[in-house]
């Protein structure tokens, strides 16, 4: 009887799921939290992982300034004190996700409709640490539909202005009705634009009548991005 010798087969480590990558970066963000201080907290499924991790060190922080009703509810449910943005003059760090981030730390945000409060808390913070899985890293902003929070009566005119720029826009719906943000406004999602100059784009669109907040975060860009990759958490600095 002969025995054939086949080469040893090593099973590659299974790829981490997107959810597992979010957990990894959420936990990695803890090292940017300053003991004894307040931390700025964003919104979204990746930030939810950060909030869960934050709960494990809640006794070491004063509390959080939150960017949405959803994050506030999660923070409070886990016993983390939530402070109003008007109670603070500055924060050491803001931790949030992104829909897209480029090689300069410029981001598109607002997939969770929380962009206005996110930009306010980011503006209060000395450092923006973005947490994201590697699918969010892009060469140029513009693939993910750009969220823009608008006063409802301005929606049609704002969409027409984006059409004049070469894009298309639609009012975001929930259960067949316009989605109403935490601020009582609507979201217009814009497709078909390549945002090659994020600073100029943000400055221009922010001036349009009825625009509350545009989801380009260039003035409030990230200084650090913790990117969940197949080989672990990669730290990008900008
Ligand atoms: C919410 C946001 C989120 O940070 C962004 O949509 C990313 O969310 P997720 O972590 O769920 O992918 O801007 O308004």
Key structural traits:
single chain; 238 residues; alpha/beta; Rossmann fold; Alpha-Beta Plaits; 7-stranded mixed β-sheet; 25% helix; 28% strand; globular; disordered N terminus; binds ribulose-5-phosphate
Fold blueprint:
Elements: H1 18-28, E1 38-41, H2 45-54, E2 63-66, H3 69-77, E3 82-83, E4 91-96, E5 100-101, E6 107-108, H4 115-124, E7 125-133, E8 146-150, H5 155-164, E9 168-171, E10 173-174, E11 177-178, E12 186-191, H6 198-206, E13 211-214, E14 216-217, E15 224-229, E16 232-237
Parallel strand pairs: 1-2, 1-4, 2-3, 4-7, 7-15
Antiparallel strand pairs: 5-6, 6-14, 8-12, 8-13, 9-12, 10-11, 15-16
Helix pairs in contact: 1-2
The structure holds ribulose-5-phosphate.
Could you give a short account of the major beta sheet?
Answer: 7 strands, mixed
Task: Determine and state the CATH class of the largest domain.
Answer: Alpha Beta
Q: What would the CATH topology of the largest domain be?
A: Rossmann fold
Structural class by SSE content: alpha/beta
Provide the helix percentage.
10-25%
Output mean pLDDT: 95
Ligand set: ribulose-5-phosphate
Give the H and E element order.
HEHEHEEEEHEEHEEEEHEEEE
What gap, in angstroms, lies between the N and C termini? Answer: 64 Å
Strand order of the largest sheet: 3-2-1-4-7-15-16
Tally of strands = 16
* Radius of gyration computed on alpha carbons: 20 Å
Number of helices: 6
- CATH architecture group name of the largest domain: 3-Layer(aba) Sandwich
| Overall domain count | 2
Uncertain runs are 1-5
Q: Can you tell me the overall shape?
A: globular
Strand content: 25-35%
């Amino acid at each position: 009887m002969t025995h054939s010798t086949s080469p040893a087969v090593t099973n590659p480590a299974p790829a981490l799921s997107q959810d597992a990558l979010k957990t990894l970066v959420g936990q990695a963000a803890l090292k940017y939290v300053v003991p004894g201080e307040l931390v700025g907290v964003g919104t979204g499924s990746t930030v939810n992982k950060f909030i869960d991790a934050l709960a494990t060190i809640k006794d070491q922080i004063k509390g959080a300034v939150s960017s949405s009703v959803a994050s506030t509810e999660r923070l409070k449910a886990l016993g983390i004190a939530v402070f109003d943005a008007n109670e603070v003059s500055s924060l050491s760090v803001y931790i949030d996700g992104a829909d897209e981030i480029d090689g300069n730390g410029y981001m598109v945000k607002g997939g969770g409709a929380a962009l206005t409060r996110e930009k306010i808390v980011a503006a209060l913070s000395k450092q923006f640490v973005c947490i994201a899985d590697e699918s969010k890293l892009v060469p140029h902003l513009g693939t993910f539909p750009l969220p823009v929070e608008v006063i409802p009566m301005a929606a049609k005119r704002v969409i027409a202005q984006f059409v004049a720029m070469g894009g298309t826009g639609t009012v975001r719906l929930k259960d067949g009705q316009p989605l109403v943000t935490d601020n009582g406004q609507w979201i217009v999602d814009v497709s078909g634009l390549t945002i090659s100059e994020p600073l100029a784009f943000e400055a221009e669109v922010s001036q349009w009548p009825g625009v509350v907040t545009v989801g380009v975060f260039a003035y409030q860009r990230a200084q650090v991005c913790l990117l969940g990759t197949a080989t672990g958490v990669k730290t990008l600095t900008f």
